[in-house]
Specification:
The protein is of the alpha+beta class and about 180 residues long. It is built from 3 helices and 9 strands; from the N terminus they run αβαβββαβββββ. The chain has one domain.
């Protein structure tokens, strides 16, 4: 029988990896549940059907809505949220006149968790992110349920609805208007 310290440590390492993987899997499941929706095509719905998994999206004051077949993030008032293609996970490229037309979403006082995070803007203010994408509203959306900013090429890049999955919506998928600034 071989009695090597390396062989005795192998089962302990596997057990440790398994224990570390369980919270990560639970967190991922909570994010998916928080971002799923039972929304209808008529407007906004809660971020999740209930239970503790809804806390991540609710903590940042967001909902989801189905707009023209795409499940998108909305603010608490039901206005569509957008991402800007030139942004990075740490930097917003939308400042000045851009930020006047595409107001940055401020994080809720309770803080962002899970797929949500924050970045520091060039003016020192905080901005909410989702899956590493800084979030914005659009002044061209005049009422909840509109997504007139989707697919617009303005201020040096393309604007997309922020989908509940975190992937960019196809340009024009829900766009009701296409006039850029």
């Amino acid at each position: 029988m071989i009695s090597s310290p390396a062989l005795r440590k192998a089962p302990n390492r596997r057990r440790l990896r398994m224990l570390l993987a369980l919270p990560a899997a639970a967190a991922a499941a909570a994010v998916v549940a928080a971002c799923s929706s039972s929304g209808t095509s008529s407007g906004a719905s809660p971020a999740a059907g209930g239970g503790s998994s809804a806390h991540a999206a609710a903590a940042v004051g967001l909902k989801t809505a189905t707009i023209s077949g795409a499940t998108v993030l909305t603010n608490a008032k039901g206005f569509t949220l957008y991402s800007f293609a030139p942004d990075t996970s740490t930097t917003s490229k939308c400042n000045g006149a851009c930020a006047q037309n595409w107001p940055p979403v401020k994080p809720a006082a309770s803080g962002a968790k899970g797929a949500f995070g924050t970045i520091k803007r060039s003016d020192g203010s905080a901005q909410l992110t989702f899956h590493g994408h800084p979030l914005y509203t659009f002044v061209g959306d005049k009422s909840p349920g509109q997504a007139s900013g989707n697919g617009i090429n303005a201020f040096g890049g393309l604007w997309h609805e922020a989908t509940a999955s975190g992937a960019a919506a196809p340009a024009g998928a829900s766009s009701v208007g296409g006039n850029g600034y």
